[in-house]
Amino acid sequence: MAPGVYDLISARFAANAGAEVLYMTGYGTVASHLGLPDAGLASFRDMLDRVSEMARVAEEYGIPLVADGDTGYGGLLNVDHTVKSYERAGASAIQLEDQVFPKKCGHTPGRAVIPVEEMAQKIEVACEARTSEDFLIIARTDARTVDGIDAALERIAAYDKAGADILFLESPESIEELERIGSSFDKPLLANMVEGGSTPVLDRERLGELGFSLALFPAIGFLAAGRALDVAYRTLVKDGRTVSAETLYPFDEFSKLMGFERVWDFDKKHARG
């Protein structure tokens, strides 16, 4: 169960909650960093900087970070550079998708996919580019919405053959489709659980029964934060008061989570009397 993280506060909260793996969501990261939709507007450098920062937090907690690599930010040479850069930045896995650039969020309309042979070659290049086989390549197809479930399954089979470590068929539209995916492949499978998206949102036990090894919950963080912020800010602006203390995370605990205890200890140690 990989909670989506989109900035360093969300990364710390997810890790502190006991998450065994973090997922750097492209949608949330672009929204948080640029205030823009996840529609191919963020650059490679925008995302790489976020990978490096979130990987630092994940390493501090001793857990892996799965990072959204979009389409690899271009052609085959771009994919090679992206994989090398994400690995050096500290990510444990990169997700690459077969959308036409500029890509769009997988649970929004208007997507298109590149030829299957072109994406398979990208996966081959990605596998060659990594320096360690412990750095995992996740192959994603967005063909379900465009061409149907059968075409999407055929694409995933091709990416499996090309060497991907984890297979990701985006936006299945029913439990029956999830069952087909889960029974079709031997490699680890990824399910993307987007609250309000195209795919039924299931729990850990059910997803395991269906044959999935990893479940991303990319939107849970920013949707939860969005609701809390909306209530808090509207109460402040409209009613001229803050929300009740019970609805807010305690300030002293928040300060500790951000690392202020080390600052306080450091100041005491080096205080000049």
Per-chain topology:
Elements: E1 2-5, H1 8-16, E2 22-24, H2 26-34, H3 44-61, E3 65-68, H4 76-89, E4 93-97, H5 116-129, E5 136-141, H6 143-147, H7 149-162, E6 166-169, H8 175-182, E7 189-192, H9 204-210, E8 214-217, H10 220-239, H11 251-257, H12 260-269
Parallel strand pairs: 1-2, 1-8, 2-3, 3-4, 4-5, 5-6, 6-7, 7-8
Helix pairs in contact: 1-3, 3-4, 4-5, 5-7
Summarize the structure in short:
This protein is of the alpha/beta class. 49% of the residues lie in helices and 12% in strands. It has an 8-stranded parallel barrel with strand order 1-2-3-4-5-6-7-8, surrounded by 8 helices.
Measured by DSSP, the beta-strand proportion falls in 5-15%
- CATH architecture of the largest domain, by name, is Alpha-Beta Barrel
CATH classification, class level of the largest domain: Alpha Beta
Biggest sheet strand order reads 1-2-3-4-5-6-7-8
Distance between the termini: 50 Å
The biggest sheet amounts to: 8 strands, parallel, barrel
Structural class: alpha/beta
Which superfamily, in CATH terms, is the homologous superfamily of the largest domain? Answer: Phosphoenolpyruvate-binding domains
Estimate percent helicity: 40-55%
Structure summary, number of beta strands = 8
Mean pLDDT: 94
The structural domain count equals 2
Radius of gyration: 20 Å
Tell me what the structure shows:
The chain has 273 residues and is an alpha/beta fold. The chain has twelve helices and eight strands. An eight-stranded parallel barrel has the order 1-2-3-4-5-6-7-8, surrounded by eight helices. Helix 5 links the parallel strand 4 and strand 5. Helix 1 runs parallel beside helix 3 (44-61), helix 4 (76-89) runs parallel beside helix 5 and helix 5 runs parallel beside helix 7. The longest helix has 20 residues, at 220-239. The model has no long low-confidence stretch (mean pLDDT 94).
